[in-house]
Amino acid sequence: MTEAAVTAVSRSGGHTFSKYGEPVIRLLAGLGVEGDAHLGVTVKHRSRVAQDPTRPNLRQVHLIHAELHDELAAEGFRVAAGELGENVTTRGVDLLSLPVGALLRLGGEAVVEVTGLRNPCAQIDGFRPGLLKRVVGRDEAGRLVRKAGIMGVVVAGGEVRPGDAVVVELPPLPHRRLDRV
């Protein structure tokens, strides 16, 4: 079995759809990714700011599993790390099955607490026409499945680089299933 690891780190200082690959990013406790447009205690995502700018920022860090990029490539959609807006790309972790409150230890110091699922929007089709249908689906029971990654908050700061280990710590039972944030 492959060890869980960070494969890429990205950020963007502007509210751009895609983020730009970096050799290292710094996570700041309670804030998010240093130099990223979504850094802050309160919501920064433009649609959420329009609803209520005082709400807590549960979307400080966006993570996507590299296996999604592999799946999309097999369907004819070439998508590189950071292009779907994620800050951290991982491999070897089933991010979508994690419960609310799971802790992701990234590298030697940084810790991200999982808050929920990214809710893919129509901007994805603006990036690659037809891609939205590939990152949203239905399970056997007909429930909506969002595959465009997870969101979290930084509980311990530190630098994160490609190649860093990812260690998952599950919260106490009962686990709460991820929902969109």
Automatic annotation (TrEMBL):
Domain MOSC as annotated: residue spans: 20-169
Domain of life assignment: Bacteria
Pfam families in the record: MOSC
Gene3D superfamilies: PK beta-barrel domain-like
Cross-referenced InterPro entries: MoCF_Sase_C (IPR005302), MOSC_domain (IPR052716), Pyrv_Knase-like_insert_dom_sf (IPR011037)
SUPFAM superfamilies, alphabetized: PK beta-barrel domain-like (SSF50800)
GO molecular function: catalytic activity; molybdenum ion binding; pyridoxal phosphate binding
Protein name, entry field: MOSC domain-containing protein
Organism: Planomonospora venezuelensis
